[in-house]
Amino acid sequence: MTDRPFSTASYRDAARALAATGQRIYANGWSPATSSNYSVRLNATHAAITRSGKDKGLLRETDIMAVDLQGQPATDGKPSAETLLHTQVYQRFPEIGAVLHTHSHASTVLTMHWPANMLTLEGYELLKALEGIHTHESRLQIPVFDNTQDIAALASEVDTAMAEGAISHAYLIRGHGLYTWASDLPSCYRQLEALEVLLAVELDRRRLSGV
């Protein structure tokens, strides 16, 4: 495609950064096989995102494509089936520059074994790794949405919850995984890492306490 509405340099930089970040995420076991998807905002109207069906442990720059904020391809390739869950965040929050979605063991067990629609993380020092949190004396409530193949409906449900102020840093999809976002990709990875570690700790604590 020619006459792209974003710079080639920014697109290449985003593809390179997403490929490298994806390999880090895979190495931690949070994105097995072809699961998960990652994106970076290119400008006010477009984002770079992982193509559908790519092995995240082998992610390359050529496995990244561009879409508009309605989820339509702006370069060659098939976007992730969950693209609208990324573009919804970019439309809702103009200051957000990256979205990461993982399928970890901890997030799957926590949301399937315990049926609550909210998961609370409280009192952890590592919460300070999240944007805007400055003390361990904090409570992070992460909404849990039911899994569905109707991604447009789920994106609408998430958007409503965000509009109502019910979501701050992340949300979970039951039996599926975690979504989180931040101002740029390094900040988003830091936040993801903190959340995944906290979810694993929370899972261990519940097992030990027999909850």
TrEMBL record:
Instruction: Briefly state the protein's biological role.
Output: Catalyzes the dehydration of methylthioribulose-1-phosphate (MTRu-1-P) into 2,3-diketo-5-methylthiopentyl-1-phosphate (DK-MTP-1-P).
Under the heading NCBIfam families, the entry gives: PRK09220.1, salvage_mtnB
Question: Which residues bind Zn(2+) per the record?
Answer: H101, H103
**What keywords are annotated for this sequence in UniProt?**
Amino-acid biosynthesis, Lyase, Metal-binding, Methionine biosynthesis, Zinc
Pathway where it operates = Amino-acid biosynthesis; L-methionine biosynthesis via salvage pathway; L-methionine from S-methyl-5-thio-alpha-D-ribose 1-phosphate: step 2/6
Look up the signal peptide feature and give its range: none
The organism named in the record is Alcanivorax profundi
- Cross-referenced Pfam families: Aldolase_II (PF00596)
Gene Ontology, cellular component aspect: cytoplasm
Q: Does the keyword Lyase apply?
A: yes
State the family named in the UniProt similarity comment for this chain: Belongs to the aldolase class II family. MtnB subfamily.
Q: Which PANTHER family match?
A: METHYLTHIORIBULOSE-1-PHOSPHATE DEHYDRATASE (PTHR10640)
Q: Where is the Class II aldolase/adducin N-terminal domain?
A: 16-203
This chain's protein is named Methylthioribulose-1-phosphate dehydratase
